[in-house]
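Here is the promised in-class demo. Please do not try to memorize the tokens; focus on the logic of going from shape to residues.
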């Protein structure tokens, strides 16, 4: 018959945990028990240096002898980790006789409980069990959960506990209290607690509690950088925000793989801008964010790359603050660093560049073009965003300012995605690179000697044109 287990959590104040065995398997269990605050006794003829050190620090008790039935009868629970069949069977039988719960390492048939893989965010604990069938699988699942849960989740739980009396006193109705707590863990107060800013979290929580007591729900906006494209480059905080969103307002550069990670029932509003097709003005986008937040929604403003690198994040934050809407910012991997990592392209290098500059090929209406004189330093890597259609002007201006025509150049389309395409050439062939058939996705231009370090495959190489390209300069 297949063994089945009911998950429970043992109160470590209820008695002493007995560990039988003195080597690594036993030490591993002792570490887990001490981490949970248990009193631990070890019984074994010989013990390793780790257990000896713990005993010297008075963190555990050690009896250096064979285990006895009296040892087992006086324990709250027993773990046998001897790898000795005779001893393990004795421990299991004696524990059952005395009604003590027992685990024998790697022997589920002798155990009446298993030790799970544990994600510890005390006081929050997550336990993963495979009922002894596949312990390595349990550890792999634990690693995935570790990656999702904030390291400060325990601080958030403790902060929430500190609010419980105030919430109960101010919000008398039990249903309204449940609604408050459901919203609280998606609020700016929760984010501030997760960031260890408990002073701000307390102020924000007081506002939330008072509004809930008055029957109001406070909305907010979370500005999230979606990264350069690949969904697995999202930060953990970005993933958490997507899973808490009521409304997601997203751009053209945000792919379906990223949206697939969002809360399924969230309202999704596409407000993408593309060259020559601005279906939503910036003012209209600002208005949508303000209106949705005022309805009490948690709004995620999802932007490709990083919101503060050519993403108009500053303009939207200003509009939200002027409207009195709480706003948090979750940074993303900007396209330049994502593309560089995907290619193994160092943006700075001791042999080639000690400065890296980001510039846009499409400044706002009425604003000047990039300072090409500043970008012409041969010891600098220049990364041009949104410069594909102005490649000829960019190349001509840089060369006119003294940058060598043979300076290596890369044009990177759809960086970090499966459709990524990289074209290599020189500054003098940059206009040819940008006009390659099918180069229709968002692209970055990287100019500098660091490009010579790119040695990845597959790459497409554009050689110098047989007919010299006529330089075009910007006045």
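The designed amino acids, position by position:
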């Amino acid at each position: 018959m297949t063994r089945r287990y009911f998950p429970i959590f043992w109160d470590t104040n209820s008695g002493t945990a007995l560990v039988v065995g003195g080597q690594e398997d036993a030490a591993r269990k002792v570490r887990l028990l001490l981490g949970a605050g248990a009193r631990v006794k070890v019984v074994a003829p010989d013990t390793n240096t780790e257990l000896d050190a713990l005993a010297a620090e008075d963190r555990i008790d050690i009896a250096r002898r064979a285990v006895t039935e009296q040892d087992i009868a006086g324990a709250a629970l027993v773990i046998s980790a001897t790898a000795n069949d005779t001893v393990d069977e004795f421990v299991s039988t004696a524990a059952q006789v005395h009604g003590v719960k027992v685990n024998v390492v790697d022997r589920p048939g002798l155990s009446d409980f298993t030790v799970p893989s544990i994600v510890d965010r005390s006081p929050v604990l997550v336990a993963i069990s495979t009922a002894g069938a596949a312990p390595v699988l349990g550890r792999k699942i634990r690693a995935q959960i570790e990656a999702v849960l904030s390291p400060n989740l325990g601080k958030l739980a403790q902060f929430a506990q500190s609010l419980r009396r105030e919430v109960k006193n101010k919000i008398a109705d039990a249903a309204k209290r449940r609604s408050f707590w459901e919203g609280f863990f998606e609020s700016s107060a929760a984010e501030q607690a997760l960031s260890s800013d408990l002073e701000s979290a307390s102020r924000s929580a007081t506002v939330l509690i008072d509004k809930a007591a008055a029957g109001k729900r406070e909305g907010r906006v979370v500005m999230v950088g979606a990264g350069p494209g690949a969904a697995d480059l999202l930060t953990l905080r970005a993933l958490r925000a997507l899973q808490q969103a009521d409304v997601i307002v997203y751009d053209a550069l945000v792919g379906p793989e990223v949206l697939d990670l969002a809360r399924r029932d969230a309202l999704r509003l596409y407000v993408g801008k593309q060259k020559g097709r601005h279906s939503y003005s910036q003012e209209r986008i600002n208005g949508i964010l303000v209106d949705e937040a005022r309805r009490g929604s948690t709004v995620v403003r999802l932007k490709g790359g990083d919101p503060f690198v050519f993403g108009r994040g500053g303009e939207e934050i200003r509009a939200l603050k002027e409207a009195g809407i709480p706003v948090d910012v979750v940074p993303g991997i900007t396209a330049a660093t994502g593309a560089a990592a995907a290619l193994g392209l160092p943006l700075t290098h001791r042999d080639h560049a000690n400065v890296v500059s980001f510039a846009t090929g499409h400044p706002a209406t009425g604003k000047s073009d990039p300072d090409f004189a500043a970008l012409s330093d041969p010891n600098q890597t220049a990364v041009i965003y949104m410069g594909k259609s102005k490649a000829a002007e960019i190349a001509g201006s840089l060369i006119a300012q003294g940058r060598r025509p043979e300076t290596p150049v890369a044009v990177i389309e759809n960086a970090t995605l499966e459709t990524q395409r990289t074209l290599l050439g020189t500054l003098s062939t940059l206009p040819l690179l940008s006009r390659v058939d099918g180069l229709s996705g968002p692209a970055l231009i990287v100019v500098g000697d660091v490009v010579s370090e790119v040695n990845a495959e597959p790459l497409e190489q554009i050689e110098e044109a047989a007919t010299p390209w006529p330089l075009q300069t910007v006045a």
